[in-house]
Design goal:
heterodimer; A: mainly alpha; Ferritin; about 60% helix; elongated; B: mainly alpha; about 50% helix; about 0% strand; globular
Chain lengths: ~210, ~110
């Protein structure tokens, strides 16, 4: 189960309103490579993961992604909270404003609402971990594009750089987990045929 | 069996933690976990209530009482059976120990 910690994983203090940036950064909240998708992807895959290290890493990275979701939501909130209607219109946020005001709603930069189609649970540990590795790279690439778009706002760039760096670390850890799973699958298997059956018959077949 | 002295020499202060302590059997573990779950739930429930009734002194006292009890019980449980959160210091990385809660660990 989870418990809320009343703090951000990394501090965010944006002094200047800029809905133009919020319009693109929202993609890391509810977009295809965003933090919500990342968290749900890992926290759903953990149930079927047979490997000891990999299930811990899915659980723990999935948990950290929830903290990142809160960070991205905080950035969007601080960028839009005090924006005037004129600024919102100028930033192209009028359609968003119509449906959501300045609430933080999970959607992509192009306005597509969040969908579970962004995540996959394939019932195969190798396929799932490869998906996770790709997801971390896509999130890193997205953060780099966002950093380019935010080049004149250091208050926004700072947490974005932190989030980008976490994607790199997650990629590293998933890579190690995948290697562990592959090594185990490649091990020689030994079967012991003349062992007596264990006395664990529950009697439900009688 | 004597526990090997695991002092790593880095002054992290964790060399005396007990592990796989035989004083605690499976039944004790189940009972302790049930008590932790009960206290946890009581704190969540009181928390919701206090969010809308912050002036209720009786609820506040109960919340304090349960928080203290939970702290002590969790400390005791984690020393014997391994960490419940990633914030519990161990001299061996026991976080990987199975079963996880979704694996019918009875807990």
């Amino acid at each position: 189960m989870w418990t809320y910690n009343k703090m951000l994983e990394y501090p965010i203090n944006i002094k200047c309103t800029d809905p133009r940036l919020a319009k693109v950064i929202i993609s890391q909240y509810g977009g295809p490579d965003g933090e919500l998708a990342a968290s749900l992807r890992y926290l759903s895959q953990k149930f079927g993961m047979p490997d000891q290290n990999a299930k811990a890493i899915l659980n723990d990275i999935g948990t950290e992604e929830l903290a990142h979701l809160e960070m991205v939501g905080t950035i969007v909130h601080q960028l839009t909270k005090d924006a005037s209607v004129e600024e919102i219109e100028k930033a192209g946020l009028a359609p968003y404003y119509t449906d959501h005001g300045v609430d933080v709603y999970p959607s992509s930069a192009s306005g597509v609402p969040f969908t579970a189609a962004y995540i996959a649970c394939k019932g195969d540990p190798i396929a799932n971990l490869q998906e996770d590795l790709a997801a971390e790279q896509k999130a890193r690439a997205t953060y780099e594009k966002l950093i380019n778009l935010c080049r004149d706002n250091p208050d926004v760039i700072d947490p974005l750089r932190y989030l980008r760096q976490r994607e790199v670390v997650h990629f590293q850890r998933f890579g190690e987990a995948l290697r562990g799973v592959q090594d185990k699958l490649a091990q020689k298997k030994f079967y012991m045929n003349d062992m007596k059956p264990l006395d664990n018959d529950c009697g439900c077949n009688k | 069996m004597l526990e090997e002295n695991r002092n790593c020499g880095c002054n992290c202060g964790n060399e005396n933690e007990m592990m796989n302590n035989n004083d605690y059997d499976c039944e004790t573990r189940r009972e302790m976990m049930q008590q932790i779950q009960a206290l946890n739930f009581a704190i969540i429930e009181l928390g919701l209530y206090l969010d809308t009734h912050p002036e209720d002194q009786k609820a506040l006292c109960l919340h304090n009482k349960y928080c203290k009890e939970l702290d002590e019980l969790e400390e005791q449980y984690q020393k014997a059976f391994g960490p419940l959160t990633i914030k519990f210091p161990c001299n061996k990385w026991r976080w990987l120990e199975e079963p996880w809660p979704w694996e019918r660990g009875n807990f």
